[in-house]
Amino acid sequence: xxxxxxxxxxxxxxxxxxxxxxxxxxxxxxxxxxxxxxxxxxxxxxxxxxxxxxxxxxxxxxxxxxxxxxxxxxxxxxxxxxxxxxxxxxxxxxxxxxxxxxxxxxxxxxxxxxxxxxxxxxxxxxxxxxxxxxxxxxxxxxxxxxxxxxxxxxxxxxxxxxxxxxxxxxxxxxxxxxxxxxxxxxxxxxxxxxxxxxxxxxxxxxxxxxxxxxxxxxxxxxxxxxxxxxxxxxxxxxxxxxxxxxxxxxxxxxxxxxxxxxxxxxxxxxxxxxxxxxxxxxxxxxxxxxxxxxxxxxxxxxxxxxxxxxxxxxxxxxxxxxxxxxxxxxxxxxxxxxxxxxxxxxxxxxxxxxxxxxxxxxxxxxxxxxxxxxxxxxxxxxxxxxxxxxxxxxxxxxxxxxxxxxxxxxxxxxxxxxxxxxxxxxxxxxxxxxxxxxxxxxxxxxxxxxxxxxxxxxxxxxxxxxxxxxx
Length: 471
Fold this sequence. Notes:
The chain has a domain at 85-120 and 194-302: 2-Layer Sandwich (D-Amino Acid Oxidase, Chain A, domain 2), CATH 3.30.9. The protein is built from 14 helices and 20 strands. The protein has helices spanning 23-35, 64-73, 77-80, 122-136, 183-187, 218-222, 271-281, 283-291, 335-354, 360-381, 391-407, 409-414, 421-426, 428-451; strands spanning 13-19, 41-44, 84-85, 89-93, 106-108, 118-119, 139-141, 144-150, 156-162, 165-176, 191-193, 198-205, 232-237, 240-246, 252-259, 296-302, 307-309, 313-314, 318-320, 462-464. The strands form four sheets. Strands 1, 2, 7, 8, 9, 10, 18 and 19 form an eight-stranded mixed sheet that branches. Strands 16-12-15-14-13-4-5-20 form an eight-stranded mixed sheet, covered by helices on one side. Strand 18 (313-314) and strand 19 form a beta hairpin. Helix 9 (335-354) packs antiparallel against helix 10 and helix 11 runs antiparallel to helix 14.
């Protein structure tokens, strides 16, 4: 077990103090340390460590930008290999009463994608990240509370409380990675509502739920070469989706996400109500959950989980990352992608300033760019949940959304162009055209689903999105 050191007697001054030792804060610390070897970083976390496995946090499903960030930029290959390899995203559309998975139209891969992604047990992974931080010489303190924040111009004072002992530290950069607590967002009154009105409840069961074991039918089994249960599996219906995510600890993460206009929050905001809801809309899966209800590890819920932030970066030496800033939607698992992009902007700002560069202008440009990215993702989700009940339209939408991801933001990130302002400005007109085209396409999908009900009786079909013809 790691020994966590309280070193404020030795280190009263830090270059960077990160409030929050979760995924966004720990990965930012690693990224900064890799770029600037002698940088002094403290990560301050309120929770005790090591954190519990499985029943810790959601955000277990990562996709390709995040996986590239973890493995190639941060050098976390050894840590990732202890997690489960992910067999892509897989979708099952509703058919009649949803009592037979073999009759549902299935959209997903048959083999592992060329680009890696992982199912992350957040507790296990974050414990590994802490060890990695300590090896790099990053200071980490658990079980401490941020008691007071005094902001200056690259000269901030932070008072921490640990074991009833106060310690006041100075830092040039203060980073808010405190999650939904949003310490800086609250202090500076930066909260901004988001239009997207969707709710979620989730829980973990200490049992490995393997979808492949639900039925014995050989035809269905033979459609996919690799185990389906290693995918992030989605059960879809009108206005909702249910996630099923396996974790390396042997547990399974389960979530219900639904449009408030179609499925009121009060119908699934407790575990008892969520079970009733699942029995109504996903009875086959509900029976699997019921068989292991004695192994329930936790239950959590969020009403209107989507939110925005008025400002993310300041040239005066503070920034916000991860859930402390913005969150849009968990569908397609973009949360860690946003962390990767957010942290990369912050890293560039700190590195540039450390070399003596005036960052006032570039800070505003990165702020505008990040805000544009968040805005660009909005149409993919906003008012689109009703489409999930239409297999034909939703399949085309998924393929379109994947095409947009791979030809747009993923390509920019993999080619290290996202923070290259000269390149992004040169591509501005094209990116704006792509945004406008996507707006039209998302509107088209929405109206198509409203008038086309021809898929109601379509069933028993496997669609391999790796083999789909170009749109």
